Amino acid sequence: MLRHVENAVAVILLAVICFITGLQVVFRFVLKHPLSWSDELATFSFVWLALLGAAIGVREKAHIGVDTFVRLLAPRWRWLTELGVVLLLQLFFVCLCKLGISFVGRIGDERAATLGVQMFWVHLALPVNAALMLVHSVPTLVSILTTGRPRPESEPGE
After folding, report:
1. Are 79 and 144 in contact (CB under 8 A)?
2. pLDDT block averages, 10 residues each, the chain of length 158
3. Inter-residue contact 145 to 79 (CB < 8 Å)
4. Do 59 and 6 contact (CB within 8 A), yes or no?
5. Do the beta carbons of residue 96 and residue 134 sit within 8 Å?
6. Which DSSP string corresponds to the chain?
7. What is the C-alpha to C-alpha distance for residues 13 and 40, in angstroms, rounded to an integer?
8. CB 100 within 8 A of CB 127
């Protein structure tokens, strides 16, 4: 269920970015009357899309990893290295979430210049997506602890 919601939100955000950017081009260059709010909406949508994309990347194990050195290790050391990497990543995600919540708490009633939307909603992207990254890293941790190796990459369309 979470997978479908994330994918749908990513598609919607990408569609908003493309539509708003295209609309801005038409208004600026064809109608000679640029929209004042389009840059902010596209930027805010891009912030959410980029961080959501990072969370989806964790879910799909799509982030770049250099495992040449790890493959040369004995199985026991490989297991410990993979476990250590996942635990360090989870610690990083927890720190991102904690710092993001702290940052969101300090925003106050700051509002976007043209849209007037509270910046709270824009900055909420960091703790929300850091939490998603943490959630998506749990199956890898469980797999390492139970089977001794990371979960396999998901199949396309899974």
Report:
1. yes
2. 97 98 96 95 98 97 86 89 95 97 91 94 97 97 88 54
3. no
4. yes
5. no
6. -HHHHHHHHHHHHHHHHHHHHHHHHIIIIISS---SSHHHHHHHHHHHHHHHHHHHHHHHT-S----HHHHHS-HHHHHHHHHHHHHHHHHHHHHHHHHHHHHHHH-TT-B-TTT--BHHHHHTHHHHHHHHHHHHHHHHHHHHHHHSSPPPPPPTT-
7. 13
8. yes
